[in-house]
Here is the input.
Amino acid sequence: MRRKTSEEAPDASLDWPAAIHRALKSQRVRQISYVPDAGHKRLIELCHADRSMAAVPLTTEEEGIGLAAGAWLGGERAALLMQSSGVGNCINALTLSSNCGFPLLMLVTMRGEWGEFNPWQIPMGQATPEVLRLGGAHALRLEQAESAFDTVSAAAKVAFEGYGAVAVLIAQRMIGAKAFKEKR
Amino acid sequence: MSEAKLGRRSVVRALLERRGELLVVAGLGSSAWDCTAAGDHPLTFPLWGAMGSACMIGLGLALAQPRRRVLVVTGDGEMLMGLGSLATIAVQCPGNLAIVVLDNERYGETGMQKTHTAYGTDLAAIATACGFAKAEIVRSASQIAGVRAGIHRAKGPRFYQVKVASDADPLVLPPRDGAYLKHRFRDALLGRSSATDSVTD
Here is the structure.
């Protein structure tokens, strides 16, 4: 058995944002709302370029919970992309999923958990799984790029066919910890 | 001399009579009671919580149902909590969405405290600045026919800040069960088959 060492870098050759985009498409997700995160950059671009999707930039993350509820009332599926710091902004709006049973699919890029250089990110990043649990959402971890398609597809099933609130927490280690070396 | 302020119940009744295929989202509190007083309807989704979400629910619905007209009826307090959603809506520019804010300048459910609009916050100006196709303040009964036409026919997104009296009306409550409200809306709009929808792999 191959032993993984801490020196090993995540496999950057796998295009996991494209795999997530494919999973969203195959699960008929049509409305993609987001507050940007560097980790979601490529997925956001793919969604904007996809004419079968409405890409909806938000001013704050909880807007995406309302959008998803409205989409479902109208017969469409939505997903919300955000960074872990945005999960705290969603708490009161989560009543739409936990009380009304609206499906909710969230894709959360994690900060504050692996090589984080910004101490302001750590409290919310560390609290994210517990905040989601308290808000009635189920969390799945995505740690390996090659699991992106399966994990997002499974989460979408739980959301849209299990009528649940699900967050895929995309590991900071997989994305690569942010460093302020260059712009863009 | 200022004329008497509009009554919120009569405004909402005028907007929702002969509603045709209109889909309605009602913000929590008095706006939801007003919509219920005009006639409880399966294609009205009233909120009892998630304050600040009404306009975004309207946007999701408008994007999902581009051939139907969507109306959000909410209050000034609820709208103030979701001001950013006006910018978000303007970016999407849904031609089938209208927002009516019943502005009594008060938090009506919590003791009639003044909201920011009582101190001069101009919601219609905010909507205009965000890029709405049309946004105006409505003060007189003679303007209501125009609001109705805007909701049912004109290209959106449209925003109407209707200044209303702060009198308390009798409570007329919609169903409180969110799951029921969601199911009856989807049944009425999409049919029973929506309850068994799935993606086959």
